[in-house]
Amino acid sequence: MINIFRTLINFLLPHRCLCCGVVLASHDSLCADCFNNITFISKPYCKCCGRPLYTGSTEADDLYCVSCLNKRPNFRYSRAAIRYDNFSKRLVLDFKFAAHIENKKLLARWLYLAGKDIFEAGADLIVPVPLHYTRLLKRKYNQSAVLAGELAKMTNIIVDYDVLKKIKYTLPQTQCDGKQRHKNIKGAFTITHPERIKGKRIVLIDDVYTTGSTTKECTKTLLKFGAKSVDILTVAKVID
To answer: Which residues pair with 79 in a beta bridge?
Structure first.
């Protein structure tokens, strides 16, 4: 009976590609054409910030970019699953702004794969980048928190949804250039319960890493209030 009901549902509401909408045999996925248009970030990349490095070896594990060699960032590792480009932008922005929550399982699977070395190094707590309450009321959900919840199911790592709080209303970072982004987000976050992060290895979750201003400010706040380390894990990353 259950199988008959499932067959009927699949006939009336078939699984569709999360990008183009073509009918698929499985759910929460992309068609072959759309999948082939996604550029995944793979080795070799900087061991610290995850920026792709163009070398002859695809197995190198201890390479650093010039920027991280000159000045080590405040986070331990930063990883992203895919390159943020004209094709992947639609998938990410539909999830972020158009309430396409159905994208969460696919994006969280990519997060999990991208963060493999972070989880192997050890992580105690997952923390999503928060929204200011006014933006949360308007959008109805925090896309980073949704991703964090899905990732927690895969890793069995606890999520703390409200320990990191945004207390300053800021312009959308997309409306600011590089220098303005840093100034715009400075002092925007605080910690509600320092005892919940003290001595913990934090995995900070966001959707897109552009200049890193937001995640670096979150990292700064988490470390200031006692976190042992912070790793940044995002779905997509802007690669210059």
So the answer is: 233
Query: How far apart are the C-alpha atoms of 82 and 68, rounded to whole Å?
Result: 20
The angle that helices 104-114 and 88-97 make with each other, rounded to 10 degrees, is 120
The interaxial angle of helices 178-185 and 213-224, nearest 10 deg, is: 30
Q: Which tens digit of pLDDT belongs to each residue from 42-96?
A: 999 999 999 999 876 656 678 999 999 999 999 999 999 999 999 999 999 999 9
Side chain identity, residue 33? D
User: Rounded to an integer, what distance in angstroms lies between the CA atom of residue 153 and that of residue 90?
Assistant: 25
Residue owning tokens 């990191």: 164
Query: In whole angstroms, how far apart are CA 190 and each of 167, 170, 183, 220?
Result: 7, 14, 16, 10
Sign of CA dihedral 120, 63, 47, 209: negative
Query: What CA–CA distance (Å, rounded) separates 135 from 112?
Result: 27
Residue range 73-237, CATH number: 3.40.50.2020
> 42 with 53: CB under 8 angstroms?
no
Per-residue pLDDT tens digits for 155-213: 999 999 999 999 998 877 776 776 788 788 899 999 999 999 999 999 999 999 999 99
For residue 102 the two structure tokens come to 């159905």
For the whole model, what pTM was predicted? 0.90
